[in-house]
Amino acid sequence: MTFKSVDEILEYAIGKEEEAVAFYTDLSKKDTFASVKDTFVSFAKEEQKHVEMLQGISADTAKVETYELKKVPDLKISDYLVETEYKEGMFMQDILRIAMKREEMAVKLYQDLSEKADNAEFCKLFALLAQEESKHKLALETMYDDFLADNEN
Hints:
The protein is mainly α and 153 residues long. It has a single domain, classed as Ferritin (Up-down Bundle). Helices cover 69% and strands 0% of the residues. The chain has helices at 6-28, 37-56, 62-66, 92-116, 120-152. Helix 1 (6-28) packs antiparallel against helix 4 (92-116) and helix 4 runs antiparallel to helix 5 (120-152). The longest helix is centred in the C-terminal third of the chain and has 33 residues, at 120-152. It is elongated, with a radius of gyration of 16 Å. One of its GO terms (molecular function) is oxidoreductase activity. Pfam families: Rubrerythrin (PF02915).
């Protein structure tokens, strides 16, 4: 993937974030997932914040400059899972696998975009977004691990 401008990078990232909003919003509406509905609603809202951040970056770069980057633990559970497509009626652990892989790919996307950006502010923005997606990945991996532990009994 080659980008010719920062605007192209941002457009691409916004599209990916909008896909994530739609994905989590759709999952939150499934009746069978009432136990984690709030989590998916929360993730959809977080992804929407990313869309808004990317859309408004030129107007408010101060937020990016003051954002503190921190290391987010990585359980690496999704690293060993095969990507699959969502199908109606999937088991919860399969849906969590899909969500974990999506977040893993988002982290990689933003890390790659950070490397391609030639502007320090945008490098930090993409690092910030990679961190946010890492938080989602960690939450999903923890949820997945807990789900499996609860269902072993």
